[in-house]
């Protein structure tokens, strides 16, 4: 994750994009990219969503990458370690949603 974050920092710095990467702008871009990911599955049956054609799978991979990139940049700008946050959330979810007996 650190390697990805650092690569994104370098990519943005080379283009002087950091000034645009406010939390507001990043979360808006993240939302747009998540919606683009949803479009690939809209109206698909569960079976169709599990059996993507290679071209569709590549398009979905691009959208997943866009979502991950904006999420990584948002976490970076806010000083949040997304891996630590995910681990903490798993612990919270385990308490909230215990396994059935």
From TrEMBL:
Lineage, uppermost ranks: Bacteria, Pseudomonadati, Pseudomonadota, Betaproteobacteria, Nitrosomonadales
PANTHER family to which the protein is assigned, alphabetical: DCTP PYROPHOSPHATASE 1
UniProt GO BP: nucleoside triphosphate catabolic process
Gene Ontology terms, MF aspect: nucleoside triphosphate diphosphatase activity
Highest rank taxon of the organism: Bacteria
Entry protein name: Nucleotide pyrophosphohydrolase
Family matches, as Pfam families: MazG-like
């Amino acid at each position: 994750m650190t390697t990805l974050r650092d690569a994104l920092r370098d990519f943005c710095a080379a283009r002087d994009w950091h000034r645009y990467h406010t939390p507001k702008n990043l979360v808006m871009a993240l939302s747009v990219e998540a919606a683009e990911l949803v479009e690939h599955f809209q109206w698909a049956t569960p079976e169709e969503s599990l059996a993507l054609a290679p071209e569709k799978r590549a398009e979905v991979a691009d959208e997943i990458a866009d979502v991950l990139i904006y999420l990584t940049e948002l976490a970076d700008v806010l000083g949040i370690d997304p891996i630590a946050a995910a681990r903490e959330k798993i612990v919270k979810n385990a308490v909230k949603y215990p396994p059935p007996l």
